[in-house]
Amino acid sequence: MTSRSEPNLPRDCAIAVCALAVALAAAGCTPPAITALNEGTDASTQGRYEEALKHYDHAIELDPKWSTAHCARGEVLSKMKRYKEATLSFRQCTGLNPRDLEGKASLAIALLLDCDYSAAQVALDDFDKAKSAHPRVLENAEWVRVRLKRAAALGGRCLTESEVEAL
Hints:
The protein is mostly helical and 167 residues long. The chain contains nine helices and no strands. It has helices spanning 9-26, 31-45, 49-62, 67-79, 83-96, 101-113, 117-130, 135-153, 161-166. Helix 3 packs antiparallel against helix 4 (67-79) and helix 7 (117-130) runs antiparallel to helix 8 (135-153). The longest helix has 19 residues, at 135-153.
């Protein structure tokens, strides 16, 4: 029987920080862009969406090829109900990182909420081709799939937000 060593938090944290720094550097992400993204996330978490959007825009300005910043921008635009702009951000996100399943699912949701049902179906099909077993992403895809079917049953008219939530 082998004994497990007790965690050494300072060492373990230092290793984690180094690994994160290496991963971010490999992705070409600059530290100021990380700071801007973190500030945006803090603002978004507190419901300050306009401020969050400014931080995400700044992160993208600093590092235009960072797909995570584009996806975060899309999420906050969706929270602001600016779905057309959100779809552009999610398309940028998934264009930069075609394996970003969360971005693909979020794109389908934003298109659905923007009442672009045919594009939502295409985005959902794209997601289905790329998906793997990730519970949250699969849950989002099922959410879109169910609502697309119900919207079609209602004649494909643009549903209100409360009608979408009630589906």
